[in-house]
Amino acid sequence: MDLSYQHSHHQRVIRQRNLFGISAALLAAMSLVLLVCLGTRDREIVLQPVLRSPLTVSSAGVSREYLEMITRDVVLLTLDRSPQNLEYWLNAVLDITSPRVQGKIKADLLRIVEEQRGSSVSQFFTIQSMSLDTRNLRSEVTGDLSTIVGSKVASRQRRTFRYDWEYSGLSLKLVGFGIVEKSEGKEP
Description:
By secondary structure, the chain is α+β, with helices and mostly antiparallel strands. It has helices at 2-40, 64-79, 86-95, 102-116; strands at 44-47, 55-58, 121-133, 138-149, 152-168, 171-179.
């Protein structure tokens, strides 16, 4: 009797062990599937509402709203300057620039800083319209570029500026910007 009791007890323990082994294997497989899903899933960061709506940044690409807001802020940063804020302007533009083009852009910005330093010439830009290309990461902004000498407006011209972007990971960086020249025979 004692032998049959021990045998049934051992059989129960072996079944429990096998059940725990199968459960552990299933949990390990599920963990592996979850890790694969997590690794291939698009990442998102929720940004605080700036104007109209909350924004998210995704590793899948740049949303139109995000590109519009970044372009708006960068246009004002790059095109509004005076002799009093040249150092801040230079550093702020370089902070948003892609590392691969910082040298070229810094050289161009330093030429502007040297030309404007010590003068009484300031400029500001008033945005009139914006066109965005999220596929090619390009923004074009049209508006009035005003130049002020001393306290008088020296000129006001309708201009279009192009901004090219690079999106890597979850970071949108400026890779180039400049004025769009009008082609001959066309009116803006």
